[in-house]
């Protein structure tokens, strides 16, 4: 005897409750993977080299268009229990079959070169993308040409585009690599033909080509005319064209090369004829300006001050060492003026410094011919306002400073301006609305919450509203016309709190705290659009 469950009267339709299990896909996959591990219900064996891999046709077909075509079509393999797979690495096949059952795979340096071709064969687009993403993160001037060729071979168009862009932007370093010297002529031509090649002058391109030819001169000498066509000789200086290019024995001994040099000479000597001589060789290169990069300058490591400098490029998500400073510097102040990075003062581990160095990212060189500050300074605040570099406060080893001076790059000279009303070391500085702000710091005895603002028109400092928290060795940045003060240290501990200053209302207000306490913190605003 059965009876129906009575529902309330007046319900127009039967009650319904859709249910979707979040656990079901994962649990099902786990059980199927366990069945495979114990070789239960397996209906196909893949023979890869000396390896036999047991599997289920339905799982392989669901994950791979290659297997789906093999097992559902009229191919002989659709009726075989053992299927031989050729031209694929055994370990790579194991990893991909494991992925089909577990949805997990680890791409690493030791397997990516076999995993990507295997994923291409099995048409596993997701793994192809993962391999390409891994290789993008590994891009370096020493390997970008190899990655570029690998991407081209396996039709990874996005990786090829990224590797091309990286090669063009870093050409000045790439041309020094072993990979560059081993390039076949057609790939070399592809690279130097680009309008976006990042070079200081066409001389670099010519020098790179000649170094490539001389690397294997017997084999490559006949290829020189073909390659030289893609060097923009008309863009060279007359002195370099005549003195270096025209006098090179390899150029002089080849008629086609001499013709190219003569063409460039005519372009330079007959400016009135230039409109009729325009072409690929007369077109100036226009390298794409990449996004901003970050520099980590000096500091303290393993009990001593350091001179090393690193650069972070958000386009490659990579830190790389660049040229070191001539002196070790901790507590150094840094800022950028006219696309040059200045390192001001600091402490070298034994003495306080007043020396200043300047880094040129185009040449990857530091210059020490910058005038020193009038006094030694460490824990100094540095910022740029109105074309001047300002050094604010700090300490000289004897006392905490309220001295402020500014550097004129045209005169290579520091000049003192009005001093702050308060001595400040570990001060944060920010520029907003044409004013220079000195935020917090320590007066040598205790942390400060006071803030003052410098007006360069009046050469005077004015006190503005204090922060809600006393902070030394804090970080500061300007965002949407407000100054953000982050972290630092008060009387007793490092801080995670943050607050912001609105100059229109002359008020500080708290913002959400960081997840970690930080002192000696730096803050930077970066606008970055991913590739």
UniProtKB/TrEMBL annotation:
| Biological pathway | Protein modification; protein ubiquitination
Domain BTB: start-end pairs: 42-109
Which branch of life, at top level?
Eukaryota
Q: Which InterPro entries match?
A: BACK (IPR011705), BTB-kelch_protein (IPR017096), BTB/POZ_dom (IPR000210), Kelch-typ_b-propeller (IPR015915), Kelch_1 (IPR006652), SKP1/BTB/POZ_sf (IPR011333)
Its keywords, alphabetically, are:
Kelch repeat, Repeat, Ubl conjugation pathway
Among Gene3D superfamilies, the record links this protein to: 1.25.40.420, Kelch-type beta propeller, Potassium Channel Kv1.1, Chain A
Know the name of this protein?
Kelch-like protein 20
